[in-house]
From TrEMBL:
Source organism of the structure: Streptomyces misionensis
Residues spanning the membrane: 21-43, 63-85, 97-120, 126-146, 187-208, 220-245, 282-305
Location of the protein in the cell: Cell membrane
GO CC entries: plasma membrane
UniProt membrane topology term: Multi-pass membrane protein
UniProt cross-references to InterPro entries, sorted A to Z: DUF318, UPF0718
Assigned protein family: Belongs to the UPF0718 family.
Location (main, coarse): membrane
Name of the featured protein: Permease
Keywords: Cell membrane, Membrane, Transmembrane, Transmembrane helix
ATP-binding listed as a keyword: no
Amino acid sequence: MLLLGGTRWLDQPAVQAWRTVCLAITVQAIPFLILGTLLSGAINAFVPADLFTRVLPRRPALAVPVAGVAGAVLPGCECASVPVANSLIRRGVTPAAAFAFLLSAPAVNPVVLTATAVAFPGEPAMVAARLLASLGTAAVMGWLWLWRGDEKWLRPALRRRPAGHEHGHAHGHGRWTEFRLGFQHDFLHAGGFLVLGAMAAATFNVAVPRAVLDAFSGTPWLSVLFLAALAVLLAVCSEADAFVAASLTGFSPTARLVFMVVGPMVDLKLIALQAGTFGRAFAWRFSAATTVVAVAAGALIGGALL
């Protein structure tokens, strides 16, 4: 009886809702985290060290937009883009280009754009606005890193090495063994931070009542800022966030666009993943700057197109 009484709180509706949301976010994100860590392991084990530096333009300022557009080829969410960007840096790609890829891949790939078109039928302007605002944010953040970024914010293992000393294949291991070890390390490391981010997002979902959402929808500028903050806290996967945005009918199209631009680039689970991969000093600075740029880009593009 004592044991039953002590666990009765687990059956409370709020606790059950928290558990459901936390599990849903984690289950939704894990396939893409696996995809990302598989790609990261494959890049480290099988791709020649100088391939990416040969493909991308030599000038970092030009490599940034090229890497941003290249993000369209990866049909995954932010959970996949973090380990891939990490692998690109270890292969000698300039961090600015890797970060542009990190931001664009979850937001402009064909799966996400198709989902947006389905969620907003008959509104091609919303799809175009999401594409332009997301690409613009990724490019601006890459250039901003070139201008003000400091590699001291990155973990020591990721800081740029002299030419000819990029990370190569591990000595003493075959390529398949290196692939397996790299995948195992990245998945276990990033998976723990993913769970922490999912727990934080679930707490917000349960703690904030629906009435609070309705209170912010009446003022245009306040609704934009509120949906930007909501995107960070809800941590919805980029393949699903368009349907969430479409359901927020009380908010303006621009506010809902900002929700879709910010969410794939900055949310609680992504901040946790970035902190675990690149370091906390990087994650907080980069996430704060990305939020500002994404809100500005979404508001400007939304005001012009929607």
